[in-house]
User: What shape does this take?
Amino acid sequence: MKTYLVLIAATLMLVSCGSKNNDPSTLMNDMFLSEYDASTEEAAVEEPVLEDPILEEPVNIEEAIERKIIKDGRLEVEVGDLAEEKRKLDTLVAKMGAWYSNEQLFNESRQTTIGLIIRIPADRFEPFIAAIEQGGGKIIAKSIEARDVTEEYIDLETRLANKRNYMLRYQELLKSARNVKDILEIQENIRQLQEEIESTQGRLQYLSKQVSYSTLTLSISQPKPYSYSPDERAKPSEKIRQSLFGGWYAFVDFVYILLYNWVLILLVLAAATLWLIRRRRNRHRKAKA
Assistant: This one.
């Protein structure tokens, strides 16, 4: 009986081992682990292959640089009501953030004109001109000019950076200078560099302001109605009075001229007197002969 039980237990153990080896999940795990080990070994043996880098699209240098454009314009407009147009223009200037740098009034015989120089933010320059053109006035003349100063601006910035670097080097040399001659020479170079740096900074600031604000020279005129006005003539009594005073002033001026040239007049009189005396002596001698 004991032998029979031992045989049954051995049979069950063999069956359980066979069923464990035939489990699908166990087989998949064993296959995955074997493939992972194989791939790991191949990766350890084979050298890695470097892929070609993805080249980016070329960058346009001109587009990358911020352009520095100075815009100037000139506009002449003829209107029917000068005062009303000036009020509209004042409102437009305040709305656009602009300002007047110069304002003049010319009251002529044929027309009244207001001359204005307006500084306008560069990004609002075209809308400002378009608003004036749509205001109802007659455009007499118009001109727009744009100047590209990008190259000059970059050149000035480069020079400024180089001069600042030189300034730092000279300051370091000044600390290590040992004799008076070297100290004075370095200080003179520093002074010249400081003047050049200030001049370059001033030019850069000027260009920045010109780029940030555009200039518009605006002329608004209102024609006057034609009316004939003859020249006014002075009264006869006024003309006589002016003639008498004019003659007296001329005589006084003549006396002033004589007094101013009295030396010359005396010399002329003396020369004439000597000439007359000699002439009489010659006649007297001829008569005796």
Q: What stands out?
A: The two ends are 212 Å apart (CA to CA). The beta strands are 69-78, 99-107, 111-121, 138-148, 213-223. Confidence is low (pLDDT under 50) at residues 1-10, 14-64.
